[in-house]
Amino acid sequence: MRIDVVSIFPAYLDALDLSLAGRAREKGLLQIATHDLRDFTHDRHRTVDDTPYGGGAGMVMKPEPWGEALDTVATDDSVVVVPTPSGTPFRQSLAHDLSRERHLVFACGRYEGIDQRVIDHARERWRVEEVSLGDFVLNGGEVAALAVIEAVVRLVPGFMGNPASLAEESHGEDGLLEYPVYTKPATWRGHTVPDVLLSGHHGAIAAWRHEQALQRTRERRPDLLGDASETSS
Ligand code: 6GU
């Protein structure tokens, strides 16, 4: 897989040299490059933003540098990923989907966003995914791109040591949150590990874990249980 990231703060992506993506790159399974959007400007001040048509607070990213950047970086088999708080929620299913692609291009916006024509034009040439990490606001797409890249890269075959651990986690096959986990010692600061986990009864352990996962999901994420009374639409 190849990943290109376009940003006015490419140094944000330095963290990709660490950990998972770093190891995948060392194995030659992943190529990642970052690009400074300002390198695609032509004025002396390397301007990337301007005031919004129609008025209002903040600045909007100009279309021309983005057009040149995407022309340079994207190819026929690219998927363009645009992190934005107004995107569709980024889910594990999309992470799996993107992990099967050959080339991802992340367009990291700042300010109040990128001129909409950049996205509209990109959709005429590439698959475009505008994604949000949740109902909160970041100053730009860089931190969101890091999160999406980590979620995708760990699913690419050969990138992770133990494929079983990929299926067994939260938002995995059964759609529930993960059950609580424990390790030694059996008592720590007066808190004990649940007896069933020390029992050696695999059936009882599996049943307990499933019940814990259900209880957690009911309490924290009832929307995941597909109860129509809990969904907003
Ligand atoms: Cl993807 N981008 C920004 N700027 N803010 C966010 C977000 C993305 N997801 C949640 N907040």
From TrEMBL:
Gene3D superfamilies, sorted: 3.40.1280.10, tRNA(m1g37)methyltransferase, domain 2
Organism: Aeromicrobium erythreum
EC supergroup of this enzyme: transferase
Protein name per the record: tRNA (guanine-N(1)-)-methyltransferase
InterPro entries from the UniProt entry: Alpha/beta_knot_MTases (IPR029028), tRNA_m1G_MeTrfase_C_sf (IPR023148), tRNA_m1G_MeTrfase_TrmD (IPR002649), tRNA_m1G_MTases_N (IPR029026), tRNA_MeTrfase_TRMD/TRM10 (IPR016009)
Gene Ontology molecular function: tRNA (guanine(37)-N1)-methyltransferase activity
Subcellular location(s) per record: Cytoplasm
Residues annotated to bind S-adenosyl-L-methionine: 109, 133-138
GO cellular component: cytosol
Stated family: Belongs to the RNA methyltransferase TrmD family.
GO biological process: tRNA N1-guanine methylation
Catalytic reactions on record: guanosine(37) in tRNA + S-adenosyl-L-methionine = N(1)-methylguanosine(37) in tRNA + S-adenosyl-L-homocysteine + H(+)
Main location: cytoplasm
Presence of keyword Nucleotide-binding: no
EC numbers for this chain: 2.1.1.228
tRNA methyltransferase TRMD/TRM10-type domain residues: 1-225
UniProt keyword list: Cytoplasm, Methyltransferase, S-adenosyl-L-methionine, Transferase, tRNA processing
Highest taxon, organism lineage: Bacteria
Subunit structure: Homodimer.
Function: Specifically methylates guanosine-37 in various tRNAs.
